[in-house]
# Entry
Amino acid sequence: MRFGDGNRSIILTARHHACESTGSYVLEGVLDDLIDNPIEGFQILCVPFVDYDGVIDGDQGKNRVPHGHNRDYSDENPPIFPETSRIIEYTENNNVCYGFDFHSPWHRGWEHDNVYIVQSSIEKLVRLDLFGEILEKSITDKAMRYWHKNDYPPETGWNRAGSQFAAYLNDVGSTL
# Structure
């Protein structure tokens, strides 16, 4: 789905893991708001089911061999899935300024009881912190509450340099 006018782009994705349906519901709410309140100067590209075949086949995709869709972003190897290949192509050719993946790996407990942003790299931490602070102040009572303090810092847990998804986040978030 693509909508909006402008020479800059925002890409929204969900369901890199087919089983993570909660991300789709959150994305649906974001889309409803963006359609009602367009962002001037931006085109929005939405990929609601990156692993569409997994959704249809009931294959969660997390342990797929050699890897799932969210691990298919690498500078060293070309993508094996056509969906991620097209997302990469889009980001390279459409002045993507922001990329958001609506991921929902767990449904209760730990950090997953909160809305958070995965901070892509230490080098971008100042800009990502500023973005988080601005976003926190911009949240209205109509939205799920976001607290910048809950953001997932770089080089923590699964968010480590060298992981393919961290590299993708680093590339997509390069203008932050």
